[in-house]
Each structure stands twice: as C-alpha cells, then as structure tokens.
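Handout, section 4.2: multi-component inputs.
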Amino acid sequence: MGIQFGGDYNPEQWPEAVWAEDLKLMKAAHVTTVTAGIFSWAKVEPRPGVWNFGWFDRVMDGLAGAGIDVCLATMTASPPPWLSRAHPEMLPEGPDGQRRWPGGRQHYCPSSPVYRSHAVRLVEQLAARYAGHPALTMWHVGNEYGCHTRQCFCEVSAADFRRWLRERYESVDALNDAWSTAFWSQAYGDIDEVLPPRAAPTFPNPAQQLDYLRFGDDALRACYLAEKAVLDRITPGVPVTTNLMPQHKPVDAFAWAAHMDAVALDFYQDPHAADDHIRAGYVFDLMRSARSGQPWLLLEQAPGAVNWRPRNGPKPPGAMRLWSWQAVAQGADAVLYFQWRQSLGGAEKFHSAMLPHGGTDTRIFREVAALGAEFAALGDIAGTRSRAEVALLADWHSWWALELDSKPSTALDHSRIALDHYRPLFEAGVPCDVVPPDRDLSGYRLVVVPNLYLLTARDAERLATYVRGGGRLVVSFFTGIVDEHDRVHPGGYPAPLRELLGLRIEEFWPLDQGVAVAVGEGGTTPHRRNREPGGPYSGRADLWSEVIGLEGAEALAHFTDGELAGRPAVTRHSYGQGAVWYLGTRLEPALMRALLDDVRAEAGVRPLLPGLPEGVQATVRAGAEGQFLFLLNHGDAAVEVPLPAAMTDALAAATDAEGGAGPTDSVTLPARGVAVLTEPAAGTASTPAEGS
Ligand code: GAL
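Output:
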C-alpha cells in the first residue's frame, strides 16, 4: 500500500471551482490520501435533520476519480450553532462553573447525551451514505479529543460522574475508603452527594481529582466509542482511528490505542526549540509501542509555521523533510499535514499549508512535492517494524496523580522527567520502546522507570519479577509512593519496591528552584568504584533529593554538599539474577548519560550503530521486503557516517536521475540530511563502486 502522504482537506472553505485544481495539484504533490470533512457538520446538516450531502458526494467522487484515498472524518468535532442554541446544556463548563461558549470549536460536554446522540445520528448518515465508496479507506473519528475541552464540570457531567462512581465502587463506603474522606470531614452518606472537583476554597480531595481525570478520559473515549460502534456496524472492515496528541494529559494513549485499528498522532514540532526532535522521538516511540510495534500514522503536522504559539517560526529548508522522515524512521506509515490549502479567512489563515497563499511557486509547495516523490519511491517501507531492547515506562494514572497539588514539590513535571530519561538513550543511538507498566517486560534487556509516583502493588511485583529473572532496571526518585487511590503505601517509602531496591527513603528533600547540589564520591557509606579514578559519577543535580538508607544496595554516588552531604544519591542493588539502579535526584544531563551508558553496558545493550556521530539518529525497520537503515542528521553540520557493511542509498537511488551511486560503506549527510539504506541487491559489488 505504500506510505500514505497528504493532509486535511477542507473543501467547504472554497468555491467548487477550486476543487478541480485541488485534485490536479494534489497529484502533482504525490498526495495519496486526504482526511476530509473534519469540520463539515454545519454544512452537511445545516438544520436539525436536514441533510446536505450533495456537495460532499462530489468531493468524494472527485477524489476517487483522482485515485486519492479518503480517511473520512466523522465531522463531529465542532457542533453547528443550531445545536447549542437549542440545547445550551450541551456546552461545557470549567471548574469555576463558567460556561464555554460556541464560537471556536470543541464546545461540547463529553457526557452530554444531546451531543452524543446528534453525533451518532450524523455518523449513521455518513456511514450509510459512503459505505462502499471507492475513496473511503479509513475513518477519522472526531478530532483531537480533549484538545480544548479537556474536562467538563457541568451538572450533566456531575450526574455522569456519579454513574461512573457507582460502577467503580458499588457502595458509598468503598468510595469513602478509596478517597480517604475521613480527612477534612468529607465522608459521604450517599454517592448522590458527590460533585466534580470544582474550584474549592483549597485543595480539592486528591483521590477525587484523580478519579475525575480517569472519568474525564473515559467520557471522551465514550464519545469516540459511540461513533466507532456505528462505523463498525455499517462499514465493517474499514479501519477506524482518531488523532492523538503528543504528551496529552487528558487522554491515556495506551487505553485509547486498544480501541484504534491504527494509532494516529498529530505532532507539531517547534522550530524554535533546538532539540524538539528528541521530544518527537519519545512521542513517536510511544505511538509505535502503543499497539506493540504496529505502524502508526502521522495524521497532522505543519508544512511550515503554525499560528498558535506566541512566535511562530517557519521550518527552515530541509527541516520538514527531516522531521517527516523521522516519523517514518520511527515506525509511521503515513505522513499527513494540516492542511491542504491555506485558508484565506478564519482562525488559521496564518498557519502554513501544503499549498500556501503564494501557490505552487513557493518553497513549501516544492518541498512538499519533493517529499511526496520520495515516499512514493520507497513504498516498501510500509508495514516494516523495528525492535528495541530497552523499554521506558509511562503511565497516565501516575502522571495524573503526580501533578495534583499538595505534594512535596509541584515542580515534578511528568513530561519533562520522561524526556530527562529518554534523552540519554536517544543521544546514545539506542532504540527504545515506551510502554505501560502492565506490558510484558520479559523481552527487554533494560527497563527504565522515569517516575511512577503511583504504582500498584501488582505492577511493583512485576518489576521485581523482571529483575529476579535477570532484567536490568533503572528507577528514579518518587516512584512507588502511592496506590491507585493516591494513598501512601504503608511500610516506609517506597514500600512495594524497598526489597527490590535494597533501600528505604526516610525523608523527601525537594530542592528549591535554581538550587543545585553536588554529587560524587565521599559518602559515609561504602562507595562502589566501578569507574576510572577521576571519573566517578560526579557533577550537579537538582530538583529533588532525599534521605536514602541503604538496606542491601550500595551507593554509586553521594550528595557531597548541601544538607544531605555524605548520604547516598545513586545506588545499585543486585537482586535475583538481575540488578536495579536507583536515582534519588535529577542528575545533570552529562552525568545521567554516563550512568545510563554504564547501565547499558552491564545490560548488554549496544547502540544500533557504533561510532554514530553526535546529532545523528539511526533506526532500522525490517520486514519481508528487506531491511531499511535510516540515518537522520539533526545537527547543523555535514557528517560522515560509517556503515557496518556496504549498503545502497535507496533514497538517492530512487530519486536521482542518475539512479544514485552503488553500494557504499559510508554516507555523507549534509546538515538536516536523510539517508535510507538497504542491503545491496544480489550481484552488486560489495565494495563501494563509483557510478555503477
Ligand atoms: C490541530 C487540529 C487542526 C489544526 C491544527 C493547527 O490541533 O487538529 O484542526 O487546528 O491543529 O496546527
């Protein structure tokens, strides 16, 4: 099927006369797929129950005629004005009780039966009308669930929350117990007394807030599932997806992925952030892992600048190509953009598009079309998969609980901490999966737990079993502290991990903003010397420290100044057939890298390619069609990359008029350069042969 290439297509923004040109230019840009109709509700149902599909039939037929596939949106992301006028109770409310009015988009309460029933009715019409249409290849439900309306706190949501609580707890006593309501006189006599955690004079009950985050995610997913049920019934066999967002707190990507036939992501790199490709790397790995390695779809990205950051830098020449290939290198089988043709009016007229205001004679259109040609030439990549020996754990429940108020420190930012742990692996060129704690870990040589404040006793036991069986594990501070109801595990921190880690944390000692402490040798406990003299783990650390008492673990580094001077900061504990490292602070990046390099060496995890120059990312995807080695130069200077064996630059071969050079044992990558290498075809020389 090849790599899908295209973007959001919003023809209702344009007179019909423009559509024929759209098709012609899409073909010129090698577009294979569009996502159509995302915001078309008001046009296809201009009045309640009055359907106006004729224009959309012509759009679908035109696309089919041009051989362009449609990932058809269910059009439910922005309800029409008549609906909220007739039913103002479907509008969402914030925690302050303030209504969010129409005029933007996503102005619906996810629990609203009015919204859901009208959405389902529309989807029934759409599915029945376009079932079997030659252009229809996939369904795109809603759009970016929880992007603007993350949670709703209205009366309708309150009633739905109480229904959810009754299913979860069955009795008010169980709820009181789970929420620790004995504290601050919060005990409920009846579940009917429960409200959403609306703005209160002080911290609302944390377990209530945590459940409300779970409920909010479930409410959004119920909207998605209601539409999906219609689609599965009327168009069985047509895959269904929705576009997830990166590190998006309201939506648990792992829970959603179980209900998506293919995982899809929108990712808007920030050209002003020097290392945003590392954030992209983390998110792409998570998307690939969400359905255990199944190829995923990059459903939206910007061809150039966005319009919603305070300062919107364009993607400089080559960046869009590089970052698009990065998605493919990390498992994507589709690269699409928002949007096909740049709007003249509305809120996104200064957002870049594949076809800019300036038309085809623009850098953006040329770069888009050239990239489309590259993907068209290397379609065999689609369907191939990659392998990783390292897993990084991520868990939305822990994220939700961690970032609630009333903690030792509110500076613990889940997304930032995840990247602190991902970066040293990415920079070392080590492939990595990002998986939830209940995934089978036995196939990994190394598992990294950035911070799992909330850890169930069962998941803690799974980590212990993994290490007992020979696994290598890294665990960072403030992990394993509370259970699923945000109640501290009794028995000294972190109770369910104490035996595994071989230590006890007596006191948390978070560091103030801007304060760093030194770590190194010189503690009061025996120091394990496993590094060259002069090169122990010494440097700076910030954000967090804690009083660690060793109970079998050995210290690899101590705090060497500040209040905790002399106490362990980093430890190692042999356990069963394996070993576990523990970090009681946030090490500065170079130190973190040194530690993880050593841990990897002990775990037997090597980078994909030896001698990879700094700034170059390497990944492999393999399948029946062969193996593809991707090299991506994120640096700003040209580099030479040695190859493990003579390989063919398939990208150059496919796109060069000359057919590219023959097999080579090294590649020169310009700044922002990309190479896709394959094993030489049988019969070609195994040594570099100029111009063959
Ligand atoms: C996404 C959204 C698109 C468009 C885009 C602009 O969040 O799904 O409809 O608004 O952002 O970057």
